[in-house]
Amino acid sequence: MHSAVVTHSPEIMGGTPVFAGTRVPVQTFLECLAGGDSLNDFLIAYPSVKREQLVAFLMEIEHQLTAKAG
User: Fold this and answer.
1) 67, pLDDT greater than 70
2) What is the pLDDT of residues 9-25, one digit of tens each?
3) Judging by beta carbons within 10 Å of its beta carbon (0-12, 13-18, 19+), is residue 64 exposed, middle or buried?
4) Domains, the chain, ordered by start
5) Which of the 8 DSSP states describes residue 66?
6) What is the SS3 string spanning the chain?
């Protein structure tokens, strides 16, 4: 996914997908969710990421999953 929400560039974190405008890897968010953290927990731990980015990311994942199922 390369969008206004998630970006990747060889110059930022070696190309790891990160939330746009941050150095916070998307994988970190997914690991936090898997570990039982809430969105609020993540936002407190990573204040450079905006709630709108997380919601947009989750909506895009939902869209991709439903598109593949249909």
Assistant:
1) yes
2) 999 999 999 999 999 99
3) exposed
4) 6-69 (1.10.10.10)
5) H
6) CCCCCEECECCEHHHCCEECCCCCEHHHHHHHHHCCCCHHHHHHHCCCCCHHHHHHHHHHHHHHHHHHHC
